[in-house]
Amino acid sequence: MALEEKIKPSREKCEYTSCYCEENVWCLCEFFRREDAAQLEDMFTVFISNENRTVPLWRQTSGRGGQPVVWDYHVVLLQASSSSVVYDLDSELPFPCSLKRYSSEALRSERGIRPAYHRKFRVVPAHSFLLNFASDRSHMKNSDGSWKMPPPLTPPYTLQRAG
C-alpha cells in the first residue's frame, strides 16, 4: 500500500457509528497515532456548537434536499497544513475535504442566519483529545434509559481506555 493511502484512510475503512461523532473522531485520531504519529502534531479535534445547542451544517449525509442538519453539536478532525483538510464522516463531501470547500459548502456563511444558530468552535489538539476524551454516553439516553440512537459496539470511552 502506498504511503499516501496508508496515512489518509478511506471513509469506508473508518470506524463509524451514526450520531456518535466525537467517538468517530477519536477512532480517526487513534488511526493516525498508530499509522503516523507525527501527523497528530498538525491535527485538531474541532467541536462545533453554541449555547442553544443548535448548529446548522450543510452537505450532511442525514440532510434532505439541500437543507441543513441542525445538530446539538458536531465534531470533526482538522489537519492544518499548507493544504488543510477536514475529516467529517457525516458529510457527503469528499473525505478528506479541503478546508476551503468544507467552509463554503458545509459551514457556509452565518450572514442571514439568526444569531441563535451562530456557531462556536472549540479546537483541541488531537493528541490531547486522545489522552483526555471520555464519554459514558449518558447524553445519548432518553429519560427512561433507552438509547436515542444505537451506541457503538465498543465499550464507552473512559480515561483509562483512551490513555
From TrEMBL:
<dbReference type="InterPro" id="IPR023128">
    <property type="entry name" value="Prot_N_Gln_amidohydro_ab_roll"/>
</dbReference>
<dbReference type="InterPro" id="IPR039733">
    <property type="entry name" value="NTAQ1"/>
</dbReference>
<dbReference type="InterPro" id="IPR037132">
    <property type="entry name" value="N_Gln_amidohydro_ab_roll_sf"/>
</dbReference>
<comment type="function">
    <text>Mediates the side-chain deamidation of N-terminal glutamine residues to glutamate, an important step in N-end rule pathway of protein degradation. Conversion of the resulting N-terminal glutamine to glutamate renders the protein susceptible to arginylation, polyubiquitination and degradation as specified by the N-end rule. Does not act on substrates with internal or C-terminal glutamine and does not act on non-glutamine residues in any position. Does not deaminate acetylated N-terminal glutamine.</text>
</comment>
<comment type="similarity">
    <text>Belongs to the NTAQ1 family.</text>
</comment>
<feature type="domain" description="Protein N-terminal glutamine amidohydrolase alpha beta roll">
    <location>
        <begin position="16"/>
        <end position="156"/>
    </location>
</feature>
<dbReference type="GO" id="GO:0070773">
    <property type="term" value="F:protein-N-terminal glutamine amidohydrolase activity"/>
</dbReference>
<keyword id="KW-0378">Hydrolase</keyword>
<dbReference type="GO" id="GO:0005829">
    <property type="term" value="C:cytosol"/>
</dbReference>
<dbReference type="GO" id="GO:0008418">
    <property type="term" value="F:protein-N-terminal asparagine amidohydrolase activity"/>
</dbReference>
<dbReference type="Pfam" id="PF09764">
    <property type="entry name" value="Nt_Gln_amidase"/>
</dbReference>
<comment type="subunit">
    <text>Monomer.</text>
</comment>
<feature type="region of interest" description="Disordered">
    <location>
        <begin position="141"/>
        <end position="163"/>
    </location>
</feature>
<dbReference type="GO" id="GO:0005634">
    <property type="term" value="C:nucleus"/>
</dbReference>
<protein>
    <recommendedName>
        <fullName>Protein N-terminal glutamine amidohydrolase</fullName>
        <ecNumber>3.5.1.122</ecNumber>
    </recommendedName>
</protein>
